[in-house]
Amino acid sequence: MRRLSGYTIAGLVAALIAALLAALWVAGQSFATRSGAGPDIAHLLRMSSAQAGLSTILSLLTGFILAWSLDRLRFPGRALVVGMLSSALVLPSLVVVAGLIAVWGRAGWINALLDHLGTSIGSSVFGLEGIVLAHVILNGAFAARIMLDRLEAIPPEKLRLGRALGLGPVRRLAILDLPALASTIPGVGATIFLLCFTSFAIVLVLGGGPGNQTLEVAIYEAVRLDFDLGAAVRLSLVQLVVCALIIVPATTLAPAATLFGRRTLLHWPESRPVARLQLVLLVVLLAGFLAPLLAVLVRGLDNAILDLWDLPGFWRAGATSLWVGIASAALCLALAIGLGMARALVSRTRPAHLALGIPVFTYLAVPAVVLSLGFFLLARQTGLSTGAAAPVVLVIANALLSLPFAFATLAPALEAITSRHGRLIRALGLSGPSQWRMLEWPLLARPMGYAAALAFVFSLGDLGVISLFGTESFSTLPWLMFRALGAYRTNDAEAIAALLLILSVTAFLVIPRLFERLAHVRD
């Protein structure tokens, strides 16, 4: 039954992406590009690749410094810092954008401070610098969390031997740290490059003009502003090919460490001068990461977040964001568990094991705007109203976009349960609901809670999917915030950003604990 369910889910997921690709292809043959010579694809590729490459290099460097410092230092609140880094991957992009504007914008904190000194730096947050800075804040923290996990997983016997041999900071880095990170950096780098290459909200708001436009933004503008479906489809196909060329080699790289790995209790600090350097670097980088988030809260709450209650469309957008987030998280979790259960019953050497994962990770190569355009064209080709299809599209699309992360979290855990407790399961005659209730549910509660929180926050902060379906009557909080920024209603945008940040942090604090408590409730 589990295998049949898993194969059915994999087949449906694969069929859906095939239908979306077919809709793009048919539209590409049907619609001619209206804008003369069409978009400059070479320039868009250069810009997308340049900002993604620069962002990836700086993110990996920042992540390494953060991980190296956190691995060596011990201080009050360290666990909180590590937890905040864990949530960086799914922080709503618009929240970071609003924070950067509040800190580095023309009316931001930095310029306000410099005004007292009789100088100014202007609005340095718009353009390539702002795009890269926003990406480094999000992805540098993500890289740091994974690298820290690998450093903390170095076997304690190796640390004891290195300490006994008196390894200095440089030799310890070369002999112990870099080998531990060697298998992780390529996969993490490829993931970060893909995330930056397909970045939408950050480039859309901070791009500063056509010179910094990327493929993702060009697709949005072709549909939303020019309604040039021919250009949009051609750009989407280019985007898909490039993303596939990135994701296919990346799948052959060693997987990144999970967030639930083994930890060593052995602490080997550096010498006092090096420790001071680490502390300084840690404070500077954490200030760069936390300052925009703090600015969002200060500016948003200072601008009377309660005034949002009277903002037209706020309650409807808020309710839509919440129910879409909950529905997307539930669907994502159900799909990930169904696929993971089936995969746990299949040998790693069999083609079926690979077949159950390929449809899931295919969605890593499908940017949100491209997925949204595919649904948009599919609705038109089947005669459905885009307004009627919008709620269903948002739930399905956000669930599929977060499915690779949920599946990567839950599938290894399900395989480990089957491997370690297979004999016990057979001896007790457990199967189906009884196996789930007595064994898998209690053991999976923590990773399930994390996956559910991730999927909920991912959907809560989405702007890519709603960008082609948002209207006056159908809106979410990110879409409402984007429209406020476009209308120069900065106070409203900052208040919505503060609310999104509060909801995101609350979700990561509450949802995993709720799952753990539910798993241990006595019947």
- Whole-number total of structural domains: 2
Largest sheet: none
Our estimate of the beta-strand percent is: under 5%
Mean pLDDT across residues: 80
- Under CATH, the homologous superfamily of the largest domain reads MetI-like
Helix content: over 70%
CATH architecture of the largest domain: Orthogonal Bundle
Q: Number of DSSP strands?
A: 0
Class inferred from helices and paired strands: mainly alpha
Radius of gyration: 24 Å
What is the H-and-E element order? HHHHHHHHHHHHHHHHHHHHH
Distance between the termini: 26 Å
Features of the shown structure:
523 residues, mainly alpha, MetI-like fold, 2 domains, 21 helices, 74% helix
Short summary:
This protein is mainly alpha-helical. It is 74% helix and 0% strand. The chain has helices spanning 2-30, 41-72, 78-86, 93-104, 109-116, 128-152, 156-164, 169-182, 185-197, 201-206, 215-224, 229-250, 272-302, 314-344, 351-355, 358-362, 368-381, 386-428, 432-460, 477-486, 490-519.
Explain how this protein is built.
The structure is a single chain. With 523 residues, this protein is mostly helical. The protein folds into 2 domains: 1-30 and 307-523, Orthogonal Bundle (MetI-like fold); 41-302, Orthogonal Bundle (MetI-like fold), CATH 1.10.3720.10. The protein has 21 helices and no strands. Helix 4 (93-104) packs across helix 13. The longest helix has 43 residues, at 386-428. The protein is globular.
Please outline the helices and strands.
Blueprint: H1 2-30, H2 41-72, H3 78-86, H4 93-104, H5 109-116, H6 128-152, H7 156-164, H8 169-182, H9 185-197, H10 201-206, H11 215-224, H12 229-250, H13 272-302, H14 314-344, H15 351-355, H16 358-362, H17 368-381, H18 386-428, H19 432-460, H20 477-486, H21 490-519
Helix pairs in contact: 1-12, 1-14, 1-17, 2-6, 2-9, 2-13, 3-6, 4-6, 4-13, 4-21, 6-9, 9-12, 11-12, 13-21, 14-18, 14-19, 14-20, 17-18, 18-19, 19-21, 20-21
